[in-house]
Design a protein that fits this description.
- The protein is mostly helical.
- It has 2 domains: about 1-25 and about 30-65, no CATH class; about 75-125, no CATH class.
- It has 7 helices and no strands.
- The chain has helices at about 1-5, 10-20, 30-35, 35-45, 50, 80-100, 100-125.
- The termini are far apart.
């Protein structure tokens, strides 16, 4: 079981593979009749109709099985000014983190300082 944990398998797959590696039981059960991979195959077969496109050729819409906590984007006219400001601040912070390019900024600064140094040395005759 520890080997499966080291491989990074989740608890459900750990249980699945643990059943497969355990000795077969003498009692007839559905687990003994279907090995773990066949069980996964049956699950995917059951949901295959959800993945297939509709007859008119358009892909079927995806509906998440989980209900969202809040509607997005929120209706700003229904929010108080304080809550609007909080959302805007949160959005700005997340956008700044997502679009930050620290390596590009660092390399740009190095090139700019290098150009300034070269220009200064050329003006003063310090080429060494």
């Amino acid at each position: 079981m520890k080997d499966l944990y080291r491989l990074g398998l989740g608890p459900s797959l750990q249980r699945c593979f643990a059943k497969a590696s355990s000795p077969p039981s003498t009692s007839p059960s559905s687990d003994a009749a279907y090995p773990p991979l066949a069980d996964l195959s049956r699950k995917f077969q059951a949901h295959r109709h959800e993945l297939e496109p509709s007859p008119d050729g358009e892909p079927a819409p995806y509906y998440s099985p989980y209900k969202p906590k809040r509607q997005w984007p929120p209706d700003m006219s229904k929010l108080s000014p304080k809550h609007q400001f909080r959302l805007e601040r949160k959005y700005r912070r997340r956008a700044a983190l997502k679009y930050a390019r620290p390596r590009w900024v660092k390399m740009t600064k190095i090139v700019q300082w290098g150009a300034i140094t070269c220009e200064y040395r050329l003006e003063n005759g310090n080429l060494s």
